[in-house]
Design goal:
TIM Barrel; alpha/beta; four-stranded antiparallel beta sheet; 12 strands; five-stranded parallel beta sheet; 11 helices
Length: 304
């Protein structure tokens, strides 16, 4: 079983960076952030849409059963689109809603509404909130209490470094059963360790490696340093707390989807039991996937 524990889909990019730089789609994968233009997704995305149909194709070709969709203020909220995907692909995805945490007075009621509409998780974009909103603000406590009692999952991407870790420790001390998935593997080469990694010592806190091939992009496939970082994390918190993720489709401007998976799947230095936990079983347990079948990756024409 393979589950992608960190990926994105969107219908239309309409985001904002640092509260002031609009993110807009151009053509053929190009986006603008303020006045700067860059390739924000594979160029084959002519209308700059990262649709569910595209990643389901990647799933099927690479032998992936399901995906966990997180959101980003960079792309703009995609809540309505994700709910439509949920209806079209039942059981294939777990979706995190994206409320407006900048609106402190309304975010709890907004989140309650999103849960009523069918979401079972929230995304907390810590890096965007840094210096603007404290994660441990008491105004959010009713939200963490609700999520803890209902078993909902909080996906959190922290800023670089460890500056937000003490704030999050306060949340976990008050809501010790809150289910949490830390993104981007805790920013290991951006000053995030040991603080972000150590959060996994809490009972229900996990860490997923979505974006790790971005963090170690300079070394290229098969990402030897990234693999060693994963093993180092496992030696500290155990493979039972770690999950694989691709960060599709942004990381695919550099590497293929299958490469984001195969550098782990084809590595012989991780035993099969730990690899099964990392690649899918942990995510299945955390997000409640009910998957009966597995599928093998498709053979490649270049292998023939």
């Amino acid at each position: 079983m393979v589950i992608d524990a960190h990926m994105h889909i969107w219908n239309k990019v309409h985001g904002l960076v640092n509260g002031e730089f609009p993110v807009r789609p151009l053509k053929s994968g190009m986006i603008s952030i303020g006045e700067e233009k860059m390739l924000g997704m594979p160029a084959v995305f002519k209308e700059c849409q990262a649709l569910a149909e595209y990643v389901v194709g990647e799933f099927d070709a690479s032998g992936v059963q399901a995906g966990v969709v997180v959101q980003e203020y960079l792309d703009g909220p995609q809540n309505d689109y994700l709910l439509s995907v949920q209806r079209n692909y039942p059981g294939r995805f777990f979706f995190h809603a994206l409320p407006n945490f900048f609106n402190r007075d309304e975010v709890v009621s907004e989140s309650r509404n999103l849960f009523e509409r069918g979401f079972r998780g929230l995304k907390l974009c810590g890096g965007h909130l840094l210096g603007k909103v404290d994660l441990n603000d008491e105004v959010f406590f009713p939200l963490w209490e609700l999520m803890e009692s209902e078993g909902y999952v909080l996906a959190v991407d922290f800023s670089e470094g460890e500056i937000q870790v003490p704030q999050f420790e306060i949340i976990l001390s008050k809501f010790p059963h809150l289910k949490v998935a830390i993104g981007h593997f805790g920013m290991p080469n951006r000053g995030g360790w040991p603080g972000q990694l150590n959060l996994c010592h809490h009972e229900n806190v996990y860490m997923e490696c979505g974006g790790i091939i971005w963090l170690y992009r300079s070394e290229g496939y098969p990402f030897t340093q990234a693999l060693e970082t994963i093993k180092k994390a496992a030696s500290e918190v155990g493979y039972s707390k770690l999950m694989w993720g691709s960060d599709w489709p942004r990381t695919m401007v550099d590497f293929t989807y299958r490469q984001s998976l195969d550098f782990i799947r084809e590595d012989d230095s991780i035993d099969e039991f730990d690899k099964e936990l990392f690649l899918g079983k942990n995510a299945a347990n955390l997000y409640g996937f009910k998957l009966e079948n597995t599928n093998s990756p498709s053979p490649l024409i270049t292998e023939g």
